[in-house]
Amino acid sequence: DCADLVACDLAQPLQKQASCQAGNNYVALKRNIMDLANYRCDVFVDPADDLGDCDPLSMVGTYDAASQKTSYTSACVYPDGTLKRKTRTCNLQQFVTYVSNFGLRINNTMTRLDTVVAETGSGISVGLKSLVTQYLLDPMTTIVNGVTCGFIASTYRRGGGG
Questions:
Q1: What is the rounded distance in angstroms from the CA atom of residue 41 to the CA atom of residue 21?
Q2: Alpha-carbon distance 8 to 20, whole Å?
Q3: Structural contact between residues 26 and 2, judged by C-beta atoms closer than 8 angstroms
């Protein structure tokens, strides 16, 4: 085991004894770190159960052909689009596993993001274009089409134009 103390030979010169003791001190510190149980392995609160855990590591998408949308289990997102972090402590071995799985958590999350954008992006784009046309471009076109330069000419002839 990499955290075992060694027996220092007191018959050795002082320098070797000091080195041996320093090695044992290092191993003792390492043991303390290995024995800790207060590493942070945070997850999210499960929106379906405020007492439950939700981890994007377990997120799975299922495509529904009828709605042409993908629904997710373990998505961890509340209906208002928020996430709530849940503090969870763990030991060193659990922490190592937690950190080593972080790439999968990120991959699951980014895959979901890509899927949602692909499924809703055109709807957002078309809807936004329609709103911009209705509430910005059409009113501006109406104003521009109604403008004539007649008032400028009459103002200028009266001497008000400079």
A1: 34
A2: 6
A3: no
Closest CA to 40 of 105, 79, 87: 87
Whether 13 shows a pLDDT value over 70: the answer reads yes
36: DSSP letter: -
Residue in the structure block whose two tokens are 């299922």: 62
Predicted TM-score of the model (pTM): 0.63
- Beta-sheet strands, E only, within the chain: 39-40, 43-46, 49-54, 60-64, 69-73, 85-86, 89-90
| The two three-digit tokens of residue 6, written as one number | 């060694």
Distance CA 37, CA 153 (A): 84
pLDDT tens, 88-102?
999 999 999 999 999
Q: How far is CA 28 from the centre of its chain?
A: 37
R_g of the chain computed on alpha carbons: 34
Six-digit token pair at 149?
Answer: 């330069």
How many other CB atoms are there within 10 angstroms of residue 98's CB atom? 19
HSE-CB of 127 using CA atoms within 13 angstroms = 5
